[in-house]
């Protein structure tokens, strides 16, 4: 049996969880409602018990037996009301068996004491004992073990008192004993079933909560995996910039928005100068490091609305919405300067990193993204043939769309 199932297994004779720790957690879970129900039930039972002083007066009059019964009833009612108040006010979150058992034993003692003081009312007292027994089991919330002990005390004590003080005949004693036994059996199994059902319902509730918690964890895990997959699908592994496919998607959306809003749009093609010689001189790991640093420098120099991606190898591409050719040239010059100022490690201290940038810009809706990239790429190669480490700007790409 799985560990969780063992924790929620209910004992077949006492109606409690077999796991003591789980039973303690359950008692704390229901403690607040039990406090209220217990206090209310004990208070009502105490008031009913006290009201029978009226029948004592009609049967006994102002006799010593009446005053003894009245004193006993006052003591029982006072103790029970005090316990009910204490449980409601200071019961806390811990179940105290002795405190919850006290009213039952006090009620039982009071009912037993009525027999020697009013032996002639034995038939009425038998009914009261049966009713009190059922009330112990079903009306006053308590543990089955506590209720069973108090009920047996009440029934055995009543039977002994009836034999001693009411001179109950043997046959009548047997019949009364069977009646009381039947009441205890019915009450015991009724409460046992109720206790078991309550705990099974609690177990099902927590099992459902655990399953919901696991489901939420699984959903969160899947969302995390989806986010990781999305990042892998959209990001360049080395530089963490947008990869070529994702850049094309974002740049296409920016171009369409710029064209619908009738604002200029610019695009850079960036190439790292002499990158092959960097790889040949210091190795591919150092070349990758240089690419990463240049990518960081470019990304930090752009606006939040701009989009940058790795186009392939040592080439990067940048889309700048709402940017005129002159503004694009200023941004490109700033990027070039930022790369030139990159701090390198001692091993590569003789390297002077530089980039060449080709810029294409448009202010018309007749140009598509591929045409802009082609024009920017052409300007890039113009710059490379012209000595590298420079910015070359194409003012308008309208001719490419014709």
What does this structure look like?
The protein has 402 residues and is of the alpha+beta class. It has two domains: 3-212, no CATH class; 244-401, Alpha-Beta Plaits. The protein contains 13 helices and five strands. It has helices at residues 3-7, 20-51, 53-60, 64-90, 97-117, 122-138, 144-165, 170-234, 244-261, 275-282, 284-301, 325-340, 369-385; strands at 265-272, 307-312, 315-321, 355-362, 391-394. A five-stranded mixed β-sheet has the order 2-3-1-4-5. A hairpin with a 2-residue loop joins strand 2 and strand 3.
The description of the largest β-sheet is: 5 strands, mixed
Helices, by number, come to 13
Structural class: alpha+beta
Segments where pLDDT lies below 50 for 5+ residues?
Answer: 397-402
How large is the radius of gyration? 45 Å
Question: Could you say how many structural domains there are in total?
Answer: 2
In terms of quaternary structure, what is this?
A: single chain
H/E series: HHHHHHHHHEHHEEHEHE
Overall geometry comes to: rod-shaped
Strand content: 5-15%
The overall pLDDT, averaged over residues, is: 87
The helical percent reads: 55-70%
Total strand segments: 5
Kindly report how far apart the N and C termini lie.
77 Å
> Biggest sheet, strands in spatial order?
2-3-1-4-5
């Amino acid at each position: 049996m799985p560990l969780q199932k063992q924790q929620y297994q209910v004992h077949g004779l006492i109606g409690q969880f077999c796991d003591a720790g789980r039973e303690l957690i359950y008692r704390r879970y229901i403690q607040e409602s039990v406090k209220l129900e217990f206090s209310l039930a004990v208070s009502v039972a105490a008031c009913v018990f006290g009201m029978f002083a009226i029948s004592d007066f009609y049967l006994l009059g102002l006799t010593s037996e009446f005053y003894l019964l009245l004193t006993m009833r006052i003591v029982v009612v006072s103790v029970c009301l005090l316990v009910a108040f204490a449980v409601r006010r200071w019961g806390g979150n811990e179940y105290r068996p002795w405190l919850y058992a006290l009213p039952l034993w006090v009620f039982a003692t009071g009912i037993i004491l009525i027999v020697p003081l009013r032996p002639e009312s034995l038939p009425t007292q038998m009914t009261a004992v049966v009713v009190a027994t059922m009330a112990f089991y079903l009306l006053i919330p308590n543990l089955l073990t506590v209720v069973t002990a108090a009920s047996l005390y009440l029934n055995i004590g009543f039977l002994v008192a009836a034999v001693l003080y009411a001179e109950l005949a043997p046959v009548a004693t047997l019949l009364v004993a069977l009646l009381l036994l039947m009441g205890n059996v019915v009450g015991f199994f009724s409460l046992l079933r109720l206790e078991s059902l309550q705990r099974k319902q609690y177990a099902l509730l927590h099992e459902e909560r655990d399953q919901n918690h696991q489901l939420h964890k699984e959903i969160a895990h899947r969302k995390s995996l989806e986010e990781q997959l999305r990042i892998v699908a959209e990001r360049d592994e080395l530089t963490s910039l947008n990869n070529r496919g994702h850049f094309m998607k974002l740049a296409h959306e920016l171009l369409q928005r710029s064209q619908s809003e009738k604002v200029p749009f610019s695009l850079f093609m960036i190439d790292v100068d002499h990158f092959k010689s960097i790889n040949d001189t210091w190795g591919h790991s150092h070349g990758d490091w240089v690419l990463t640093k240049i990518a960081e420098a470019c990304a930090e120099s752009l606006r939040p609305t701009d989009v940058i991606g790795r186009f392939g190898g040592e080439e990067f591409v940048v889309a700048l919405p709402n940017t005129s050719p002159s503004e694009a040239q200023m941004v490109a010059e700033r990027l070039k300067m930022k790369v030139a100022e990159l701090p390198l490690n001692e091993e590569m201290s003789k390297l002077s990193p530089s980039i060449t940038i080709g810029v294409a810009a448009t202010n018309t809706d007749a140009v598509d993204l591929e045409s802009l990239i082609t024009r920017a790429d052409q300007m890039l190669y113009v710059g490379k043939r012209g000595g590298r480490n420079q910015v070359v700007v194409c003012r308008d790409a309208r001719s490419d769309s014709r």
